[in-house]
Design a protein that fits this description.
binds zinc ion; TIM Barrel; binds N-(aminocarbonyl)-beta-alanine; Urease, subunit C, domain 1; 29% helix; alpha/beta
């Protein structure tokens, strides 16, 4: 049996901020009390002056993901190690069902990708591309395996996009099996027409990626997705929401009592469309979907986080190297692999530009980056909580540590940072994953492959 005591820290949860000690036994929190004697554990960490919070939960990452003829640059080893450096102790990644195949086979493929590599605990969503004849039963099978969420695409025609009937059938199944549908909400048909027009006019630069994906294409799809979920009588989760227009759709639905949830990502809170106009093709570094928007959307998204119109901040970490992968679209913006890196920087950015800037409280920060994603995706209170019995996934956070984000120092396997030169105050000092100190002295101390697959609970189910 191993024991670890975290003393003298200030505990920060989604609801409370208070002085207490945490006693960890093996991989779980055994007890939280005002004070334990130094002799209570084999190892003692003095967290005086530190905040002690539940480890970050990033429910939107793409490690080792095939896209546009290439594969995302971080695999489960490099990506989850980078996540740990940034204070994220759980990810939920996306497996993809190739059209015409069984989802169960795709799950095996993604387990193999993670096996022996993953450094923190992970769950999987399944991207559904085809319901075929047995797809609905396949979904039930996956829920039994702990894959209690599915992503569907309303964009990328002929690749990932599914039609409204498929979406409605899938939603109907989750009404019964308690899983959650994550929706990539953009009107793919309209976007395709705009893309073809731009190409026909010889417009091939990265900025065209943003200009051919208007905010109304996002808002329309969000509205439609919520309406389909409402008709199916089931909740829905909108991924990577990027604009005020889309946010208004979610807010209006929630005001009517509809269980619609949505996440946004640091890039939509901090960057805007001008990035895609960087010279020397550098705009390609910012090509992801939905695209970056006009600057006025940013403050609306922060307001949405503050007022709970948005419930989660994830990263949509999907890195492609500039030197070789983004270059695939040098002469045609549609061939630029879509995605950007971010799994390492989420906590730093949201703390600095959210909490330090007075836009959200420290407790709301924990709720957005840890507790609510754990709850929505069937992991709470195993993850996302500081409670006796919870996994000892804990971040010891130094609110005064200063850090400049840079490709020179980050641990993601990608040759640029979307947030190069951003100066943040507030950073991890130690990261504990299931009772093991995995990051300390700015070094990863854990064993590669130590992460476990999380069987997540469907609505009404219990975590295990
Ligand atoms: O551009 C993006 N977001 N790439 C990852 C795939 C997705 O749609 O989430
Ligand atoms: Zn998406
Ligand atoms: Zn994504």
């Amino acid at each position: 049996m191993s024991t670890l005591l975290i003393r003298n820290g200030t505990l920060l949860t989604d609801r409370l901020t208070y002085k207490a000690d945490i006693l960890i036994e093996n991989d779980r929190i055994r007890e939280i009390a005002p004070s334990f004697p130094l002799t209570a554990a084999d190892r003692v960490i003095d967290a005086d002056g530190m905040l002690v919070m539940p480890g970050g939960v990033d429910v939107h990452t793409h490690m080792d993901m095939p896209f546009g003829g290439t594969t995302s640059a971080d695999d489960f080893e490099t990506g989850t190690r980078a996540a740990a450096y940034g204070g994220t102790t759980t990810i939920v990644d996306f497996a993809i069902q190739p059209k015409g195949t069984k989802m169960r086979d795709a799950l095996d493929t993604w387990w193999q990708k993670a096996e022996g590599k993953v450094c923190i605990d992970y769950g999987l969503h399944m991207i559904v591309t085809d319901l075929g004849t047995s797809g609905l039963e396949d979904m039930d099978d996956l829920v039994r395996e702990g894959v209690a969420s599915f992503k569907l695409f309303m964009a990328y025609p002929n690749v990932l996009m599914v039609d409204d009937a498929t979406i409605f059938r899938a939603l109907g199944q989750t009404a019964k099996n308690g899983a959650l549908i994550c929706m990539h909400a953009e009107n793919g048909g309209v976007i395709d027409v705009l893309v073809q027009k731009a190409l026909a006019e010889g417009k091939t630069a990265p900025i065209q990626h943003a200009l051919t994906r208007p905010v109304r294409a996002e808002a329309e799809a969000v509205n439609r997705a919520i309406a389909l979920a409402e008709m199916a009588g089931t909740p829905i989760y909108i991924v990577h929401l990027s604009s005020e227009d889309a946010l208004n759709q979610v807010r209006e639905a929630r005001d009517r009592g509809i269980p619609a949830f949505a996440e946004t990502c640091p890039q939509y809170l901090l960057l805007s469309i001008e990035e895609l106009e960087r010279p020397n093709f550098e705009g390609a570094k910012y090509v992801f979907t939905p695209p970056l928007r006009e600057r006025h959307h940013l403050s609306k998204l922060w307001d949405g986080l503050r007022h709970d119109h948005l419930q989660v901040v994830s990263t949509d970490h999907c890195p492609f190297c500039f030197a070789d992968q983004k270059q695939l679209g040098k002469d045609d913006f549609t061939k630029i692999p879509n995605g950007g890196p971010g799994v390492e920087n989420r906590l730093q950015l949201i703390w600095h530009y959210g909490v330090n800037a007075g836009k959200i409280s420290a407790n709301r920060f924990v709720e957005l980056v840890s507790t609510t994603p754990a709850k929505l995706f069937g992991m709470y209170p195993r993850k996302g909580a500081l409670q006796a019995g919870s996994d000892a996934d804990i971040v010891i956070w130094d609110p005064n540590a200063e850090h400049t984000i840079s490709v020179e120092t980050h641990h993601m396997r990608v040759d640029y940072s979307m947030f190069e030169g951003f100066k943040v105050r507030g950073n991890v000092r130690q990261v504990i994953s299931r009772g093991e100190v995995v990051v300390e002295n700015n070094k990863f101390q854990g064993r590669v492959g130590r992460g476990q697959f999380l069987k997540r609970a469907a609505r009404g189910g219990a975590w295990n």
